[in-house]
Amino acid sequence: MKCTKCGQPAVINMRQHRLGLCADHFVEWVPQQVQRAIEKYDMFTPEDRVLIAVSGGKDSLSLWDILLRLGYSVEGIYINLGIPHDSYSDVSQQKVEAFAAAHDTPFRVVNVKREYGESIPEVARRKRGRSPCSTCGLVKRHILNEVTLREGFGVLATGHNLDDEAAVLFQNSLHWATGYLARQAPVLPASHAGLARKVKPLIRLYEREMAAYALVRGIDYIYEECPFSRGATTLFYKELLDQLEAESPGAKQQYYLEFLRARADGRLLPADAGKPVLNQCQKCGQPTTAPGTCSFCRLWDVEEAAHEDSNGDS
Amino acid sequence: MKCTKCGQPAVINMRQHRLGLCADHFVEWVPQQVQRAIEKYDMFTPEDRVLIAVSGGKDSLSLWDILLRLGYSVEGIYINLGIPHDSYSDVSQQKVEAFAAAHDTPFRVVNVKREYGESIPEVARRKRGRSPCSTCGLVKRHILNEVTLREGFGVLATGHNLDDEAAVLFQNSLHWATGYLARQAPVLPASHAGLARKVKPLIRLYEREMAAYALVRGIDYIYEECPFSRGATTLFYKELLDQLEAESPGAKQQYYLEFLRARADGRLLPADAGKPVLNQCQKCGQPTTAPGTCSFCRLWDVEEAAHEDSNGDS
Q: Which domains does chain B have, with CATH numbers?
């Protein structure tokens, strides 16, 4: 296989685009795809200050690299979740620190245990009804939203790639979770006071392309998936979608992009779908669908936890 | 594994229902499921004359058997498509004839080649742009609709099982074909003059349950899939859904039934979705979305075919 642009040996063959590229052209092409997504969905401009949520994995570190190369004003945030297995969280943090140092670019760390008294596995153990993954999602959403607003960033960027989005879409459509279907989007606007604008600039790129980009650019990332994600259903859904993609190159991309189109055209969901009533949390002030205190604040409420546990036991 | 009802050895384990049944209880249970579907979706009553489309396969012959056992007034129709491979159509017809003779129940045959001058493979070959499968679907829909109305039946029943419906749903949701999503249903009402009422009484039953039913009841059916269906994408989608089902028993059923619920609740698809404007075909008088002559009548229009071919070549 040769590079479609220069005829040199290709490092990657992207069947869905009928495009093979050498290393040099590939690392040029990826930021072009990101730039196209940023413009198509009006994500942000060079004037915006962008906060990027980095985990130490290939997607978020590559996104950081790409946004810097594209000349955007971007800073990182790493949330240390306190996952102890093989020092997962600490090793991830070191990858982020090394990247930031090498690129001389600012970033901040929020250490969940230091800030709130318990790591994610600890709080999940105490709140028996909650899985570590749903606890983690809740905590990250809250902290990222809070920091983005408090530090005056215009937008929060995350490293979700096309495989991530297609797997979530697949999960939501298997259950016909129409509320989630209504809200899954490349851009979540700051539609309510206290809600930060959130964007996903990697939604045009497959996971394997992001892995190849990190490799070619020499980005040192944490290879291991989070130990809690083993056997996760999203990984299973990704496998099924990979079978579809193998059978019909471009199927994953078409699946996700056609969903966005059908919804935007008003063909898929009724007009009022997915607009939850938001209240203000009585403790932290963030928007919440709950009537009084938000789920995040209730996580740290030890009395309520004891109450829930006794209910669980009875 | 023992029968949940009597403790005898079970012939089938239905994990999605946490139910194992012996042969006797299984052949009692299947018609109960069909009766539940007939009532839940108001398909028909014992007063209705039901025409059942039979292919000679396990699903339609079993459905015929079940409806007779349930005491419905039902007659069969077999469409001989003229598929020559291993005498596929003729062998299928013999299975239908044998079943009807054994049950002393009326049925009629429409032979496509005798009636219209060409078999399905022949017409598909002439109309180069059309696959045999889409030609076959079009021809069957037209003839079944026409005969149901002409012979004064209240309703047409087909043997689509839950796997069939889930695979079609999967295909339509992979492409977000919202028009098809709006119209896929256990009951298609006679919503327009010239449209027969159509029902699918097997939608609560998995394919493997129908195969087991035919086996236990000693129904002699044609085992082979249609030779044209080899490598069909619906078979591939069924495989993917089977993987889902293996991972999570009941997933296929939940996927399909939850879709029906979300749509009925108005959470999925806008209110006016899937209501095409229907015209009357200038040749046969059947309803059609086409402006002048319907696709079925155009199939047999040799002049137009020649025209299409010359376009295709140019």
A: 26-275 (3.40.50.620)
